[in-house]
Request: fold
Amino acid sequence: MTDHRSPDARFRTSLLEENDGPATNPTENRTMGEIIAERFSRRAFLKGSLAVSAIAATVSPLALVAADDARAAEGSAFSFDELEAGIDDKHHVAPGYDADVLLRWGDPLFADSPEFDPARQSAEAQARQFGYNNDYVGYIGIDGSAEHGLLVVNHEYTNPHLMFPGIVKIVEKDGKKAAELTPLSKEQVDVEMAAHGGTIVEIRKEGGKWQVVRDGKLNRRITSNTEMALSGPVAGHDRVKTNADPSGTKVVGTFNNCAGGVTPWGTYVMAEENIHGYFSGELPEGHKEAANYKRLGIPEGAYEWGAHYDRFDLAKEPNEPNRFGWIVEVDVNDPTSTPRKRTAMGRFKHEGAESIVAKDGRVVFYLGDDERFEYVYKFVTAGRFDPDDRAANMNLLDDGTLHVAKFAADGTVDWLPIVFGQGPLTAENGFAGQADVLIETRRAADLLGATKMDRPEDIQPNRVNGKVYVMLTNNSKRKADQVDAANPRADNAFGHIIEISEDGGDFAGTRGKWEVLLKCGDPAVADVGATFSTATTANGWFGMPDNCAVDSAGRLWVATDGQGPKATGRTDGLWAVDTEGPARATSKLFFRVPIGAEMCGPLFAPDDQTAFVAVQHPGDGGEDWEAFGRPSYYEDPSTRWPDFKPDMPVRPAVVAITKQGGGKIAI
Ligand code: FEO
Ligand code: CA
Ligand code: CA
Reply:
């Protein structure tokens, strides 16, 4: 292991989530910012602007329309009194709503689970309790119920500095406080491994409030030690064989499960995102996977797992990283089922996997690769969804076509098939078959000329209006010659949202149209070039769109990651964003997280009467470290949310938001 504990360094696992490492995409493919700039400068030119100034070149026509239209707020699809943006140690929801903590890190999930005891943590206890850093939240109704179902929740990563007592020491260096971390014990690493993965837990609404059913027969924890199968084109390939698994079909565990999805046939899919952080050590000299791993930033070594388990040490198991970076499918109806890594859906830093059934019955999954300058993908199954035969759908994800998006300046988007033998994906470029293409999905997409995006995160198809929403968090590494001159913070510091309309309303098709729904950031700062409608208040704008949800009325809700005192003067939260009519691009704040947290989930129950949101990494340092003059850690956290007890650490948790007195949210 490399010693990464420079006293000046921020906590490494936090940085991993911020994707703050060096961008790894080496190609000259055009960036989204370049194409947007070209597109809007063309439009501004066509409009006959007197001077196509740098700023005018980035103002979306949507903003111009909204600015002229005083009815914007009246046309809103949302009805609630807006919450005030701000920063403190608590969560807040719009007036008239309750936001109740449903599941916290360490909460017992089974009848025999031990109660959470932060001073005496063990892997055995953690594997029977709710995991750390809840991210994706899905709901699978039992017998179609909106008030009784399975909640499926990803546990993306761990923050040892907030989880374990006694590992952070504060030292004074150059007049500044800094943290030094004690290496984790093997027992603590084991707790981390058990705190990753996912939770499947039965929940029921009683008297208007959600309860966890602790003896639910389908309750299950998935961890970094759960046995999984590799399936699809890569299964059994030489590049996924290891000493422990000469068959190349059996993988131990999953980790860094960020967003995900629930399939139309009621399975739970988990996206493996920042997998590079778990590997350490060095590949043998001249190893054939060197370039493949470099493209994904492997090894990054933020975690100490390689010090205790050979499979995370590249010197000992050089093929192991090829067994991660996939979409994992879990059959929630059988708690003993083996989760399957669906290799046909490609290998990259998978953010999520939201799906929709196309007109012809094929199923389409939209997939983001969350890193600066990476790509937007979609997977189209070869087979058709059968709503009357669940078993017939169980291997749909093993056969289909992965595509990558190429956005053109004329407003079209082409979905380029990533298929061995087509175009440049041949032996000449080092691919011997589809398995190679999938293991090196990023390189295949590079060769196809896909468009480099500003951190593609959650992508959500909207079955009501037929559109697809793409969250692009930000890209602070964009060089000046790659961005519009009017956006000096770079570099797309606040991100944007793209709206795609597939041609003919065919989600399985290979061409669509795209439009910018929103460029994010503070609209009061002209240089930012944000395009919220003028009906958007000072509380209503946001930066860093990350996760999103569409409720059953087809309304868009956006969750953010990365705001804070220095970036936007507000915590992350959940914003309601109008997409239709005169109110388009109007945003309103509905819920906000405590300091240090990011907003994950979100998810609306099928009856729209509950919004489930996941408060991830509350109390984490991030940029608040400097704003508060000290790091935030187990003994001295910036918040003790949600318990606010002196002997309880800050705990990530899922919150259920309901309207007081009942009813649909924001109606
Ligand atoms: Fe784990 Fe891309 O957020
Ligand atoms: Ca995310
Ligand atoms: Ca995130």
